[in-house]
Known about the structure:
The chain is built from 12 helices and 20 strands. The protein is α+β, with helices and mostly antiparallel strands. Helix 7 runs antiparallel to helix 8 and helix 11 crosses helix 12. The strands form 6 sheets. Strands 1, 2, 6, 7, 8, 9 and 20 form a 7-stranded mixed β-sheet that branches. It has a 4-stranded antiparallel β-sheet with strand order 13-14-12-16, with helices on one face. 33% of the residues lie in helices and 21% in strands. It has 2 domains: 13-79 and 137-209 and 326-429, 3-Layer(bba) Sandwich (FAD/NAD(P)-binding domain), CATH 3.50.50; 212-317, Alpha-Beta Plaits, CATH 3.30.70. Bound molecules: flavin-adenine dinucleotide. Flavin-adenine dinucleotide binds at residues 22-28, 45-48, 53-55, 58, 60, 62-65, 159-160, 192-195, 197, 214, 216, 269, 322-324, 375-376, 389-391, 394. Flavin-adenine dinucleotide is lined by residues 22-28, 45-48, 53-55, 58, 60, 62-65, 159-160, 192-195, 197, 214, 216, 269, 322-324, 375-376, 389-391, 394.
Amino acid sequence: MDTIHESARETPVLREAEIAVIGGGVAGLGAAIAAARMGRDVVLVERYGHLGGQASGGLVLLWDDMDDGSEITVGGLPAEILERLQAEGGAVLPPDDDVHRRDEASWWAWAPWGLIDWRAGGAQPWPVMHAASVEAEALKSLGAFMVCEAGVELWLHRWVVGTLTGGECVTGVLLESKAGRGALRAQVTVDATGDGDVFAAAGAEHVVGKMPLTLVHRLGGVDVDAALRFQRAEPDRYRAQNRQAMDLLGTTYDRWWLRTSRPGVVWCNCPSFPPADGMDPRVLTRVEVELRECIAQSLPFLRAEMPGFGEAYLLETAPQVGVRQTRLLRGETVVTRADWEAGRRFEDSIGRSRRLHIPYGALVPRDVDGLLVAGRCYSATPEAQAVTREIAPCLVMGQATGVAAALAIEQGVEPRGVEIARLQAALRSQGVVL
Ligand SMILES: Cc1cc2nc3c(=O)[nH]c(=O)nc-3n(C[C@H](O)[C@H](O)[C@H](O)COP(=O)(O)OP(=O)(O)OC[C@H]3O[C@@H](n4cnc5c(N)ncnc54)[C@H](O)[C@@H]3O)c2cc1C
């Protein structure tokens, strides 16, 4: 490939912070809020104009993996955020009395929202889960409010393009924006970019995984009650027609649409593109073009053949392409699929999701100091990440890295040297389920 030489230049240092959190998805939100609540000086950097990442801009509305089938396994910030969202009409959760019920009535009440246990096995109806359907705009607003309320300095519309290093220690990041290039120095940096942009720039060991890419969208103008009546009254005809819709939309989820809290609006976790590099702009361009076309081609069929969809229209596609897996850190601990299957408990556990007990070692790079990693780029094998990267666990990891970064500064140690008992005690006091 032809190359050009770029000359060196002077770059202004915009700020020196105690903690820099890079990426404002749920992991970054959790890290920034938790660190600021411990009294630290925190800057949160996000490339887009909103917070929430895949859980808002990616239109991923379903928060699951907060319940192991018999008890609720996630507390802390995810519970607080859902409670605040629910109070203002931004989240729908089954009431406690309905959770774990396995009967026809509960199924028809909660399956249309996706709030049932897909992994229960056996014949349907499957049990109701402690899970939530969240309104993306409500999460964007609450996220910004909570970050500011905690005293975080929020830097939107800035893209991190490199790291500042001293020896094998990250000492901050380089950013680009419409206002030009700048540097942000920090004692501890948290990589919550989802793609591991910071640890990759710092040369930390990692692998790259691939999963299907999705153009999540919402349809408006749907008569949801009519669509559900058809499913109940004519299950065989519904199955046949739904099969055709699934083929057109290239999805294997038979519940490819779910109801939302907005009247007449359904959430479609499809169509998908085969596993590919979710960081390659050529791939992402194809996803944006080809999957948009796929949605357009499915609509005439839906309008003509699916009761309830006669007036359906494309309300919006997600502004952020649905990227599930890219770079994965090789941290001090690498979570494996066997760990997940066995529900393995780690001595340095910092939180749980459904089956996963998350070890602190999976958030700490092996070979780089001054840095912690939270969210879907955490240290797991690609097979393990595929089943553990749900919204709640990413937020749990974020909260833990925020607390750990604050303790590292307080104790004057590198993040890898944080005293685990103190970290766990602090997390427990914040309602985190260990
Ligand atoms: C199609 C799809 C369906 C899913 N379904 C479910 C589901 O049903 N239930 C569930 O719980 N989970 C689901 N997930 C998984 C879940 O949504 C994600 O794993 C989780 O939201 C990831 O959160 P995160 O904060 O780690 O990363 P992200 O949400 O990716 O956030 C990373 C943030 O960092 C920012 N950023 C990235 N690079 C830079 C940079 N260089 N500089 C500045 N900012 C940067 C991004 O803009 C983004 O805001 C799904 C995911 C996808 C894609």
